[in-house]
Amino acid sequence: MLKTYTLVRKEEQQISDTEGKIIFHLTDENGDQRTVWGTTKLDENLNPVSISTEKKREFPLIQCLFVTNVNETIDIEFQQYNTVFERKEMGVSQQTVDDIAKSLMNKPVRLGPLLKSTQIKTTETVH
What we know:
By secondary structure, this protein is α+β, with helices and mostly antiparallel strands. The chain has helices at residues 59-66, 79-84, 97-104; strands at residues 2-14, 19-28, 33-42, 48-52, 73-77, 119-121. A hairpin with a 4-residue loop joins strand 1 (2-14) and strand 2. The model is unreliable at 109-118 (pLDDT under 50).
């Protein structure tokens, strides 16, 4: 399932000396608005260096948005990730990442990079 999102706004909050939160405000290809958030690890200068989310199915989106600038558009393919994190009751996976990893340990499965099909479109130039 290929989705296209434009990052409209980012809100950063400091929770502690080592933890923060980023809230991402998005618009999808249909013009629908959506908000997702992730918890960040902060370095000694209080800059976010990594991000995670409690909602495992949003992990590839959160990871991609973490390195996306406001007003950039991203295309992200969820099909491979959805195969691993199956939908359960009410559209949410009830398994943790550890549970899924344990269940796949002895199976000949090659997942490859989950964000392999992610594309970021930007007008920013790199120097």
